[in-house]
Amino acid sequence: MTKDVLSQDPVLIGDLDARDHTRLRVLQCIRAAGEISRTDIAKALISSPATVTSACGALLDAGLIAETAAPPSEGVQRGRPRVMLTVNGAVFAVAGVKIARDAIRLMVVGFQGQEIGTHVWPLLESRMDPEALVIEVRRALDAACAALDLPIERIAGLTIGLPGFLNADENFLHWSSSVTQGNVDLGPLIAAHIPCPTFIDNDANLVAKAEHLFGAGRGFHNFLVVTLEHGVGMGIILNDQLYRGERGCGAEFGHMKIQFEGALCQCGQRGCLEAYVGDYALIRDSGTVRGQSEIETIADIIAAARSGDTLAQEVLDRASRVLGVALANLVNLFDPEHIVVARSRPKFDQRYVDTMMATLRRNTVEVDAPLPGITVRNLDEMMWAKGAAAHAIERVSILKVRGLGVADAV
Ligand SMILES: [Zn+2]
């Protein structure tokens, strides 16, 4: 993560004053560069050297950045080594968490973004009441810190990624398939059980962030990430920023209606996309058509289809065509540079990817330009937690810079 630019979320920096905002921009510039001189920061930010020197002084005093010596510039035979600045990766650590159906996956990184370690905490229940879920996150964090020999006090921030509708700015959960109850203010529960600043975000948003920073979305300014798992999620990157919607709960592609009064969705409404292509829907449909109980996972359905089971083949074929139409709608609606279609497990079966792509092409409005690129890929299961850790670094950076402003005023 070290050399990547962590994009700034404009919603989050709105209450920083001008001086703190400058410090944050300087910190981000140093993070993006990996190692950079004060002079080059001033050039990059089109700012005065005095302003940059002042901001660097505050960041150095707080231990957020460190000075290193670099060899003199080319052509300079003698003289002092140039003083360079880097993010101080050792100053503290942050953690990113993904709530999955079967486990909590957690990644701990240093402030520079360097990975310290990962941990998987198995879950006995895929849906829990809100407090039980927060307690499980705390247990997962304790277990990770113990395994990594890291005092929990070193964790300066934690981001929890979970599916569903939520307001990331207020830690308010409207609805999630991982939680038994809706409209929950997670803030007090987090304050009661987790000893560091903790943030939440939609898990597909965090995958979009991870793909933008480290994966198939690198270099794209406008792209979409569609995640397939128990449900269907989407993250939207517009002009290099995550688009969350006015209430913070946009991009719920899985709950786009594709059939008037259609199949029952886990959200309680009917006709949603994920009621046709989410893992739970395919498993439900396979059970219905087969009248058997051995189909428990998507891998079971794929295996049955490969062994010639025509009913399993029909379920996968229909889901692939439905998904192809839905993706065509995204192309028609957004005209993105690129779309990443991602799932962790099991591996995509090429036959059904071909069906999906053929349907997508048939249903995309033809213009005199090529289709956006489509990447279909299996994600490392830690990619979600990695996106959450990147989010935690952004949030903690803002908290730390805001704290500097308070210290100066005293
Ligand atoms: Zn729904």
UniProtKB/TrEMBL annotation:
Record-linked SUPFAM superfamilies: Actin-like ATPase domain, Winged helix' DNA-binding domain
InterPro entries linked to this entry: ATPase_NBD, ROK, ROK_cs, WH-like_DNA-bd_sf, WH_DNA-bd_sf
Pfam family, one: ROK
Similarity field: Belongs to the ROK (NagC/XylR) family.
Name of the protein this chain belongs to: N-acetylglucosamine repressor
Organism: Tropicibacter naphthalenivorans
Gene it is expressed from: nagC
